[in-house]
Each structure stands twice: as structure tokens, then as C-alpha cells.
Design goal:
mainly alpha
Length: 429
């Protein structure tokens, strides 16, 4: 049982130490991350610090001694709030939120309630130190039944305020709410795509506010996943934007920015997947991602390492398809022969072997793509030289097992047999 006051737990996330706090709110458990400890390890702690030095007195919270106090009665915000105080203030907002919902007259409009909530949210957004914090706040806001019943009204209200307000804090609030609105009403992502929000989000990413970057990249990723983009939509991903995104990936390898880093990689993979699909029959629009990789081969080391990490952890069909499509491009392009280090390719072989065996029957189409990439690696000159026929015995045994498996679909059996024949020299042991 976790006490109502909360408890800090130490754990590892993505191989990095993290401290989390479990708290109850409204019958649900909230998981807060200790961003202070993460910021302490960053060479520029200001990137993870709150955005302003004070909070208006409207924001109420609980002091560590349990008393109620306004934010201005607690020590100045700039760098001295403890993590306990910060979380208590955020939870004070959530408690006020519950009361706001309870006090609303039945005839209240979506716009009236949102206006009241946004006024309150603006007073605490400076306490948010990660996208995770914004996720908690926005998911609690949009849990209100009125918003679930009238999502289009919520969308229009948020869009209108984005047009009227240009500050980064306002963008963080509104884009965070739009991101979560799409979770309860996926059509929100389609409408944002139709209304040209990809280019607006791309502009918002060109900031140094990594929480806003993380939110905007995550929203762009959802838009890319919800439907196939048109040629016009893909044109919004300019070479300049994509090159800047690669630069950001190389600069965000720090522990507390790791999730943002991985979100940017997933976005690049999703955009690349969109280009692959629209050019499947014939090239109708050039794919700038491959051209950029060729041009910046010496400036994408962190991307090449972390894309394998994302590939290894991918458990969604869409992400797996995007990852394997990207791998196929790399291994079929001689100009990118040095994109992955030798040890990286060994890790990729391990992932392919594991997934080819573990995929359920309904994922056979993805399994076929994994097997094709494995065959590409076997045909590479470095497989017999630098890689020294890595895991060739395991690969041979796996392919023979698939070829002879009566439960596998015929096309899977045939591909396994074809790889065994075409790559026989590489699989000698």
C-alpha cells in the first residue's frame, strides 16, 4: 500500500537511474518523475529548470508541513523548490481542478469551462519540468466528461487560442492538450493534418525549450501514424527542418532528454516510412532523409546508435514497420555502408533473430520484412569479413526451422528456403 503522502522509488528507465513518486489522486495513481535529480546531471541545468521565477498567488498548494499556502508564501521558484514542494503544488492544481468540475453549472459551455481551466493551468505550467508532467496535467483535464462528449468544440477552442497567443508557455499548454485530445478522439489528429498543423508544429520545434519540442514532436508523430500523408503534407517536412531535427538528436543524448531524443528518432522513422509508402510503386516525391544521411554520415553517430535502441524496444506494429523499412534502406545503399558500426550490426542481427522467432502468426507480414533485412545483411561483404559470419549457425537453424514449420504461412516458408539457397555461402559453418 502506498501512503497518501506518496513514496519515492528508485528504478532504471532506458538504462538510466530515475526516481519516481507514486501518489493517489481521485482514485487513480499518479507517477511523478524526479526531474531535479535528472537536471543535476545535465551540463546546462537551465534546460531542465522551470520557466519563470515566480507563480501568481492564485496557485494554491500544500507546504511540506501540511499547511495550505499560496505559491508566493513558499520560497522563490527560480531554483529552490524541492521536488516534494513542486509536486505538492501541481497536485494542488489537480485538487482545484476536481472542485472546478464539481462546481460547474449544468448549462456551462465547453468554452467557459476551458477558459477557467486554462487560467488556472497558466499559473502552474512553470512547474512542469518534463513532458511527463504535462501528460499528467492534461490527461486529468481531458478526463472531464464534458470534453469527452464534445471533442470538436475542444479542438476548435484550442485552435483559436493558438492563433491568438504566440508565447512558448501558451504553445506548450495548447499543444499538450491537443496531443491528449487525440488520444480520446483520434479524428483530432486527422483534422490537424488537414488544417496544416504539421508546418506549425515544425516551426514550434525550432526552439530551445525541450519540453515544448518533446510535445510538438510527439504530436507530429501521432499525425504521421493516424493516416497516410499526401504529397503536399510530406512537402511540409523540408530538408531544413529534417536536418535541424538530426542536429537536435545529436545534442540530446543526456539522461533527462533521452525520451525527447527517442521521440525525435521515431518521428524521423515515421516520416521516412511515409515517403517509402508513397514511393512504393514509383518515386513520386524525393525522400530527403536518405539524402541527408549520405551528406551527414560523420554527423549522425548518436542517431545510428539510438535508432537501434528504438528498434530493439519497438513493440508497436507501426513502429516495427518504420524501423525495418529504414534498416532495409540502409543495407541496400552502398553509400551508407559505414552508417552502422560492426558491433551495431551484430546487435541488429540479434534483434532480427529474436523477432523472427517471436512474431505471432498475425504479424507474418512484418516477419517477412525482418527476414528480408536479415538476407540483406548476409549478402553484405562485411558479413563474411568484419562480422566473421556472426551467428551463422543460429541463423541457419532458425531459417531451417521456419522452412519446415507446418504452421507457418507458405510465403514465410518459401522466403526462408530462398534465403537458405541464395545465402548458402554466408551460412557455411
Amino acid at each position: 500500500m502506498v501512503a497518501d503522502a506518496g513514496v519515492w522509488l528508485s528504478c532504471f528507465c532506458s538504462g538510466s537511474p530515475m526516481h519516481i513518486r507514486l501518489r493517489r489522486h481521485g482514485g487513480r495513481m499518479l507517477v511523478w518523475c524526479d526531474q531535479t535529480r535528472m537536471a543535476d546531471r545535465h551540463p546546462n541545468p537551465s534546460l531542465a529548470s522551470p520557466r519563470s521565477a515566480s507563480i501568481p498567488p492564485i496557485c494554491k498548494g500544500h507546504c511540506p508541513d501540511g499547511s495550505i499556502a499560496t505559491a508566493q508564501q513558499i520560497k522563490p521558484m527560480s531554483s529552490s523548490y524541492s521536488e516534494d514542494e513542486r509536486i505538492l503544488l501541481l497536485e494542488g492544481f489537480l485538487q482545484d481542478l476536481t472542485q472546478i468540475f464539481a462546481d460547474q453549472p449544468q448549462e456551462s459551455s465547453v468554452e467557459d469551462v476551458l477558459e477557467l481551466i486554462l487560467a488556472q493551468l497558466r499559473t502552474v505550467v512553470c512547474l512542469a519540468r518534463s513532458k511527463h508532467d504535462m501528460d499528467i496535467l492534461c490527461s486529468e483535464i481531458l478526463a472531464f466528461k464534458m470534453f469527452d462528449d464534445e471533442p470538436l468544440a475542444v479542438l476548435r477552442y484550442l485552435e483559436q487560442h493558438l492563433e491568438e497567443n504566440g508565447s512558448s508557455e501558451e504553445a506548450l499548454i495548447l499543444y499538450s492538450l491537443l496531443y491528449h485530445l487525440g488520444h480520446i478522439w483520434p479524428n483530432a489528429y486527422r483534422k490537424l493534418s488537414e488544417e496544416g498543423y504539421l508546418i506549425k508544429l515544425a516551426d514550434a520545434v525550432q526552439t530551445r525549450d525541450y519540453i515544448l519540442i518533446h510535445v510538438c514532436v510527439s504530436l507530429m508523430l501521432e499525425i504521421c501514424r493516424i493516416e497516410e500523408l499526401s504529397i503536399s503534407d510530406l512537402g511540409q517536412f523540408s530538408t531544413r527542418f529534417l536536418d535541424a531535427l538530426f542536429d537536435e538528436i545529436e545534442e540530446t543524448g543526456y539522461d533527462h532528454l533521452e525520451e525527447c531524443n527517442h521521440a525525435m528518432i521515431k518521428l524521423l522513422l515515421a516520416v521516412n516510412g511515409q515517403f517509402l509508402r508513397i514511393n512504393a510503386a514509383r518515386e513520386v516525391v524525393p525522400n530527403p532523409i536518405l539524402s541527408l544521411l549520405k551528406a551527414r554520415l560523420e554527423r549522425c553517430q548518436l542517431f545510428s546508435q539510438n535508432v537501434i535502441f528504438v528498434f530493439n524496444r519497438s513493440d508497436e506494429a507501426g513502429l516495427q514497420i518504420d524501423c525495418i523499412g529504414f534498416m532495409a534502406q540502409i543495407f541496400s545503399c552502398k553509400e551508407l555502408g559505414s552508417f552502422f558500426y560492426t558491433n551495431d550490426i551484430k546487435v541488429i542481427v540479434d534483434i532480427l533473430l529474436r523477432e523472427i522467432v517471436d512474431f505471432p502468426e498475425e504479424s507474418d507480414l512484418i516477419r517477412l520484412e525482418y527476414m528480408k533485412v536479415l538476407a540483406m545483411i548476409l549478402r553484405c561483404d562485411i558479413y563474411g569479413s568484419d562480422l566473421n559470419r556472426y551467428k551463422c549457425r543460429d541463423i541457419h537453424r532458425t531459417l531451417v526451422g521456419i522452412k519446415n514449420d507446418p504452421l507457418s504461412k507458405t510465403e514465410v516458408n518459401r522466403l526462408a528456403e530462398k534465403i537458405l539457397g541464395d545465402c548458402a555461402d554466408a551460412l557455411v559453418f
